[in-house]
């Protein structure tokens, strides 16, 4: 009897050893493939690197939307490389629109600044209201766009925010417009808008307050009323002003619909923030035939597929379903270093703290880059892969990637900030940075505005 038990245990041990050996061999094959197919670069020389230029032209030449994510919202290298890619897309491939994961209504100021010079750079760099973008690095993005338009008045580029948050400036513009074209209903409209802004400011849905749901029908009725009076309103304004006000009202409605439910807990809700951001991107393209759009957002938003272990689709998956091969998603990953993020577990937090993180754990994509001897590099997952083991790794195996965004705490378990993705399904390419460094924040001089 003891002999049989011993033999059974020995058989299991041998089988486990064989499986472990096979896994190691497969990991080695994947690492070898990464080393052979990564285009290496230095941070300072990214844009001038001829191999990078050739790869970007090959991969992005026929794309209508190029979306580049980030593993944190507070890494300077991500910002710098994104600007390099955007400059290349504009100068070499004719891209015309920059789209940011930020307030639609607030970003109108940024667009006017880069188009006409009206306003000032410091306000443009902070008016979006997102701490993550209120950095010296993003200020450089806006400065470059303004300079480009000054030098190329015949082919200007434009700036849009496609997010549905921070609607105070849009609500004020809508209120002012109604006051001019239909003053009899202004008090009624202002009462509704103030309720929407109050719900947005308190973010009550995440604490169980469902008051915002009562605003869905009133907002729908407001938009229908504006549309019904189109000809009357246009006579007191213009077609362009009417269309812009209608867009502002629709963005408010999008916010109400998206935040009437907590999509993180209720995956059955289709109209999420990601859904509406995708809708805004596609609407922008539809309104500007022939234009090509660059998107700046988090990895989780730009991805072609689910990446954060949540049950609703990403913004990128919606856009991909419409544009097919004309959409190209690039993720960012890193190995170690520091970055900026809010620490929800830190008492008396000043906000946007500098955070340190140790080496990426075993099984993370960054580890395979490091084992392949890479410091910084770009790899395209859409290329033809003849190695069956590598193909399986790209299509079927789940690999870890940092997914930190704007919040991080050292008290969290790794599953709070590492997403496990099937690489080919999630991203068309990944840009790897071995060492992350924190962005340089600007004073956030533009705060949330109350409706007058």
Write a structural description.
With 452 residues, the protein is α/β, with parallel strands linked by helices. It has 17 helices and 11 strands. The strands form 2 sheets. Strands 1, 2, 3, 4, 5, 6, 7, 8 and 11 form a 9-stranded mixed sheet that branches. A two-stranded antiparallel sheet has the order 9-10. The longest helix is centred in the N-terminal third of the chain and has 36 residues, at 2-37. The protein starts with a helix and ends in a 16-residue tail after the last strand.
Brief characterization of the structure:
With 452 residues, the chain is an alpha/beta fold.
Topology:
Elements: H1 2-37, E1 39-40, H2 50-60, E2 65-68, H3 76-93, E3 97-103, H4 107-116, H5 121-124, H6 136-151, E4 158-163, H7 168-181, H8 186-202, H9 216-228, H10 230-235, H11 239-258, H12 273-287, E5 293-296, H13 299-302, H14 315-323, E6 327-341, E7 353-357, H15 365-371, E8 376-380, H16 388-395, E9 398-402, E10 418-422, H17 423-426, E11 429-436
Parallel strand pairs: 2-5, 2-6, 3-4, 3-5, 6-11
Antiparallel strand pairs: 1-8, 6-7, 8-11, 9-10
Task: Using brief descriptors, characterize the structure shown.
15% strand; 47% helix; 17 helices; 11 strands; disordered C terminus; alpha/beta
Number of strands: 11
Helix/strand structural class = alpha/beta
From the alpha-carbon coordinates, what is the Rg to the nearest angstrom? 24 Å
Number of helices: 17
What is the typical, i.e. mean, pLDDT? 91
Distance between the termini: 86 Å
Q: Classify the beta-strand content into a percent band.
A: 5-15%
Largest sheet: 9 strands, mixed
| Poorly predicted residue ranges | 446-450
Overall spatial form: globular
Helix content: 40-55%
Q: Strand-and-helix sequence, N→C?
A: HEHEHEHHHEHHHHHHEHHEEHEHEEHE
